[in-house]
Design brief:
The chain is mainly β and 447 residues long. It is built from six helices and 31 strands. The strands form six sheets. Strands 24, 25, 26, 27, 28, 29, 30 and 31 form an eight-stranded mixed β-sheet that branches. Strands 2-7-5-4-1-3-6 form a seven-stranded mixed β-sheet. It has a five-stranded mixed β-sheet with strand order 14-12-8-11-15.
């Protein structure tokens, strides 16, 4: 049994030795000559396409490359090591010719360059055999040009209750250039806009131009150069929609929209406009309304404010109504006058004494019945800022800020405190200054 295993190993070793020797021989045969020098082999590649560069530059110069009398392929004879040349496929070969320096019409010669798309064949691994001049013949012609109209064919339909406007094209005319025999048959250019079934919004598409003869037959545009390759087509889709009229209320302390009863006449209007723009629009804002303008007491009658109805941009008011009226009143509103002695000072002057001659201040407040009835003088704070009186002495009437710490209460009017400012070492005057009246200086509503 052991002899049998030993025999099998010998057979494997022999086969491996043969394979290695064959590989070495093959490598040497493909890469080296008789004296160890690289062994080359020549191979012919027929009808390799020539790729012409900068044809658009020719067009900008009023020229074009004509197929007739122009070399479109080239036969190449290439050489390299047997290994490289046997691995080379025609798909690896690229032949390019630049038209950048061509500035005139006529049959002429331009240089072409042979390169390889696979790096294995670069760095002179593959070389051309024989030819020392690499030139191709090109036929350059002057371009013939015309201006033709562009039309749009519409496919599909809009949804029920929607309507479509006219198709808008980014270009209604284009310039076409080429050989006269290719340009003369063109009657018009056309694009096709497919809006699908039941379109509900404006459709915009970038569409490729097609060229047609006078019989409506589509033409091959391979030799037609257009000033634009595509046209943007837009089909506006319109919808008529009811919009609810609204007013933006400006709240203030004691004056809240939740405490009002109001209605707008008319409640809605119908507008027609772009379906895309109106897609998510449900309301139309007439304007703003400051609730402090309603006063400080509830009323059985409504206050009326008129607004001009301005439809959204690009839309038409189809209702025929141009003005709307807001009728509004407070459902629950009362006012009261409450006295407070809760007076505090800000920015007291250093080294000075301040004496309030106004001991109690009557404040007019307003709000809901519940909020006003629950209010006491302790809930009202009168704050006097003496920042502008740091160097003053004597008796002054100073503006006061009134705030309420309880409920949703508005303050009616502007308020002042009379105070005397003196140095800390001064004796108070023998008689008190007359007290300031309790009435507010102004009946204006403040928030």
């Amino acid at each position: 049994m052991e002899n049998e295993k030993t025999g099998r190993r010998k057979v494997v070793y022999v086969l491996l030795s043969v394979l290695v020797a064959a590989g070495i021989w093959l490598y040497a045969d493909l890469t080296s000559g008789p004296n160890g020098a690289p062994q080359t082999q020549t191979r012919e590649f027929l009808e390799i396409p020539i790729e012409y560069l900068y044809e658009s530059t020719l067009t900008d110069r009023g020229l074009m490359l004509v197929d007739e009398d122009t070399d479109r392929t080239i036969d190449l004879e290439l050489k390299g090591t047997r290994w490289s040349i046997s691995s080379l496929d025609r798909a690896h070969i690229r032949v390019t010719a630049s038209l950048f320096d061509v500035t005139s019409a006529g049959v002429q010669r331009v240089n072409y360059v042979v390169s390889f798309t696979d790096s294995r064949f670069g760095n002179n691994a593959i070389q051309r055999e024989g030819a020392s001049i690499s030139m191709a013949t090109v036929n350059i012609s002057e371009l013939y040009s015309r201006t033709i109209g562009v039309s749009c064919e519409l496919v599909g339909n809009v949804a029920e209750s929607y309507s479509a406007g006219q198709v808008e094209l980014s270009h209604t005319e284009v310039e076409v250039r080429g050989l006269q025999e290719d340009i003369d048959p063109i009657s018009y250019a056309k694009v096709t806009l497919d809006i699908g079934d039941s379109a509900v919004e404006t459709v915009t598409q970038n569409l490729e131009l097609q060229f047609y003869d006078q019989n409506g037959q589509i033409l091959d545009k391979a030799n037609i150069h257009s000033s634009v390759e595509s046209v943007t087509a837009t089909l506006p889709v319109f919808v008529t929609k009811e919009l609810r009229l609204v007013v933006n209320f400006i709240d203030a302390p004691g004056c809240r929209a939740r405490n009002t009863e109001y209605f707008i006449e008319p409640a809605t209007i119908a507008v027609s406009g772009d379906a895309t723009e109106l897609k998510n629009v449900e309301t139309l804002v007439l304007g703003t309304y400051k609730l402090t303008e309603l006063g400080t007491t509830a009323s059985e009658s409504y206050t009326t404010t008129n607004y001009l109805i301005i439809p959204p941009d690009g839309c038409t008011n189809v209702s025929g109504v141009t003005r709307a009226a807001l009728r509004i009143r407070f459902e629950d509103m009362t006012s009261s006058t409450i006295s407070t002695e809760n007076i505090s000072w800000l920015n007291l002057p250093e080294g000075k004494q301040v004496e309030a001659l106004t001991g109690s201040l009557a404040v007019k407040v307003f709000g809901t019945e519940a909020d006003v009835s629950a209010l006491t003088g302790e809930d009202i704070v009168v704050t006097v800022d003496l920042d502008d009186y740091s160097a003053a002495s004597g008796t002054y009437t100073i503006p006061a800020e009134v705030t309420v710490d309880k409920g949703d209460i508005g303050i009616n009017g502007l308020y002042q405190i009379q105070a005397t400012i003196r140095e800390s070492t001064e004796e108070p005057p023998p008689e008190e200054a007359p007290a300031l009246g309790d009435e507010p200086a102004d009946e204006e509503i403040t928030g």
